[in-house]
């Protein structure tokens, strides 16, 4: 019988074989939750009392954590930490890890693809022609991207790569962040000026108390009526009802959304059913290379922890000093 047990709350790939193999090297059995609902996870944690919780998008709340008194490590298969009560875990001496840099190029490329799609009206024309309408006039205006302004909110690793890609096709890039430190070729702007000047606004910041519904009725009103919003960060950064209302009022021209709140959203409702809105199913992070890297690194983190060593990418290092 294995020495340890780990609870795997959820994963968006076909099987957990990579993670399971890594944990087996540390004499740990990986047990899969039947679903990622909070009540299910509480029941699973109470039954297994795992030393480790591996989680992708599931709500790893204080209640879930408290149901597993033996837990000493929560490993996030991803970047964002908004689904984990990190503060509560830290208070209980539980190490939290993530993989903050595994898919930054994929997300940046996805955001740029959305910019191109919106500007060149690819999806609009595709859906029209597939429905029997072959009319280039109806799709106008279609823009030349060179010389247009991309405003990036959040200039971490993903935002920096996006800025490089956008500049490579001739776009002007402005950005905003707390540090006011920007990559080469990017002009820093306060948020209100960025919104007023941008032809495309890309969200590449983490979800926090400060950024929760950052894009709302007030900020949409500051955008150009010809501008587009792109979100590949977190759904909670956008007030989707306010986005639908802003589109109805003509305060912006359209949007491209890879992340929603909740997921999946009700696709029959605005803004998701608006033909001016591109929706992708939280797929910006995806590539075979990125997913394999993510899973291998999470497996190593868990294995290192179980073998008594410090894993990479510790979110709450104060636990190590306790």
Automatic annotation (TrEMBL):
Entry GO MF terms: NAD binding; oxidoreductase activity, acting on the CH-OH group of donors, NAD or NADP as acceptor; transcription corepressor activity
UniProt xrefs under PANTHER family: D-ISOMER SPECIFIC 2-HYDROXYACID DEHYDROGENASE CATALYTIC DOMAIN-CONTAINING PROTEIN-RELATED, D-ISOMER SPECIFIC 2-HYDROXYACID DEHYDROGENASE FAMILY PROTEIN (AFU_ORTHOLOGUE AFUA_1G13630)
Family: Belongs to the D-isomer specific 2-hydroxyacid dehydrogenase family.
Keyword tags: NAD, Oxidoreductase
Listed Gene3D superfamilies: NAD(P)-binding Rossmann-like Domain
Broad enzyme group: oxidoreductase
PROSITE patterns assigned to the protein according to its UniProt record, in alphabetical order: D_2_HYDROXYACID_DH_3
Residue span, D-isomer specific 2-hydroxyacid dehydrogenase NAD-binding domain: 112-284
Originating organism: Posidoniimonas corsicana
SUPFAM superfamilies the UniProt entry points to: Formate/glycerate dehydrogenase catalytic domain-like (SSF52283), NAD(P)-binding Rossmann-fold domains (SSF51735)
EC number: 1.-.-.-
Domain of life from the UniProt record: Bacteria
Protein name: Putative 2-hydroxyacid dehydrogenase
Record-linked InterPro entries: CtBP, D-iso_2-hydroxyacid_DH_PdxB, D-isomer_2_OHA_DH_cat_dom, D-isomer_DH_CS, D-isomer_DH_NAD-bd, NAD(P)-bd_dom_sf
Residue stretches making up the D-isomer specific 2-hydroxyacid dehydrogenase catalytic domain: 20-316
Pfam families referenced in this protein's UniProt entry, alphabetically: 2-Hacid_dh, 2-Hacid_dh_C
């Amino acid at each position: 019988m294995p020495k340890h047990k780990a609870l795997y709350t959820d994963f968006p790939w076909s099987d957990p074989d990579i993670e399971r193999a890594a944990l087996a090297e540390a004499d740990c059995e990986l047990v899969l939750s039947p679903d990622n609902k909070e009540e299910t996870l509480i029941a699973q944690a109470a039954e297994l009392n795992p030393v480790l919780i591996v989680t992708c998008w599931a709500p790893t709340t204080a209640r879930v954590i408290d149901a597993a008194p033996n837990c000493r490590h929560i490993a996030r298969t991803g970047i964002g930490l908004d689904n984990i009560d990190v503060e509560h875990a830290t208070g209980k001496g539980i190490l939290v890890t993530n993989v903050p840099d595994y898919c930054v190029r994929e997300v940046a490329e996805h955001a740029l693809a959305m910019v191109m799609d919106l500007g060149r009206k690819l999806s609009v024309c595709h859906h029209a022609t597939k429905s029997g309408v072959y009319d280039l006039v109806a799709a106008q205006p279609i823009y030349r991207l060179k010389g247009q302004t991309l405003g990036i909110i959040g200039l971490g690793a993903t935002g920096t790569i996006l800025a490089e890609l956008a500049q490579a096709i001739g776009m002007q890039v402005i950005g905003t962040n707390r540090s006011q430190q920007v990559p080469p070729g990017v002009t820093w702007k306060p948020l209100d000026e960025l919104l007023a000047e941008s032809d495309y606004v890309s969200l590449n910041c983490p979800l926090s108390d400060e950024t929760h519904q950052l894009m709302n009725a007030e900020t949409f009103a500051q955008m150009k009526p010809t501008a587009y919003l792109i979100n590949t960060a977190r759904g909670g950064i956008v007030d989707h009802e306010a986005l639908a209302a802003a589109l109805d009022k003509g305060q912006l021209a359209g949007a491209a959304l890879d992340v929603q709140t909740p997921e999946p959203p009700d696709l029959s409702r605005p803004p998701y059913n608006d033909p001016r809105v591109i929706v992708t199913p939280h797929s910006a992070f995806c590539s075979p290379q990125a997913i394999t890297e993510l899973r291998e690194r999470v497996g190593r983190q868990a294995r290192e922890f179980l073998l008594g060593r410090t894993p990479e990418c510790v979110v709450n290092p104060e636990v190590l000093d306790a």
